[in-house]
Specification:
Length: 226
């Protein structure tokens, strides 16, 4: 996926989950944060960030915060991006086989999964989670407790019980990753539910991304350790 009208800035602070103050062209601007997660290890005063500028005057802000530098690595923090690049990857990679039908945001039971994928031989429900939390090259999810994430895992197990294929894909929104593991310190129940889902036949995928200031694309598989 590609972004237009990208500008470089310096992160100042984040008054709440939805907005940040960023210095752009020497002026402090209010910027929409496209990620309601904590991102505390990324959004540190003084770091370099990249924003997308919009000319639409009906918006409350004219900038979206897209990417953040952490050391020498660039992290995309657009929470809508993982679904978009995964959708592109489904069709480009051929991983699931020849796709005959694909439907984003598909309702199943009490949940709404990110994708329903149908091939000649398979009917697959897929859920996508973006990952930005990193410690010493290890990528983790979630960065805050997620009861919704646990619910999705339980619903994916039901899919398998009822004869469908099911998978959860963790899209790492940066390039370097030694491996992925659930964040047991922050939410042990999610880690337990993920292991249970694997044991019941839910496929667990993890993919990293090529990240540029104006570009994001899924790159390769990353090892998963539960």
């Amino acid at each position: 996926m590609k972004y237009d009208n990208i500008k470089k800035g310096i992160f100042i602070d984040r008054p709440n989950r939805f907005i940040a103050n960023v210095e752009i062209d020497g002026k402090s601007e209010i910027v929409h944060v496209k990620n309601t997660g904590r991102c505390r290890e990324l959004l540190i005063p003084g770091v370099t960030v990249y924003v997308q500028e919009f000319k639409n005057t009906t918006r409350k802000t004219k900038f979206d915060l897209i990417a953040v530098c952490k050391g020498s690595e660039l992290y995309n923090i657009d929470s809508q991006a993982p679904n978009k690049v995964f959708g592109e990857w489904i069709l480009k990679s051929g991983y699931f086989g020849e796709v005959e039908y694909i439907k984003p945001e598909c309702k199943y039971g009490d949940s709404r999964f990110d994708f329903y994928i149908q091939t000649k031989d398979r009917k697959i429900y897929a859920e996508v989670k973006g990952v930005t939390l990193e410690e010493d090259g290890i990528l983790m999810f979630p960065d805050a407790p997620t009861e919704r994430g646990v619910k999705h895992l339980k619903e994916l197990c039901k899919c398998v019980e009822e004869g469908y294929d099911a998978c959860i894909c963790f899209v790492i929104q940066t390039e370097k990753a030694e491996y992925f593991t659930p964040n047991i310190r922050t939410h042990p129940q999610f880690a337990e539910a993920l292991l249970e889902a694997k044991n019941k036949g839910v496929e667990i995928l993890c993919l990293n991304c090529k990240v540029r200031e104006d570009f994001l694309e899924i790159d390769d598989f990353v090892e998963v350790k539960l």
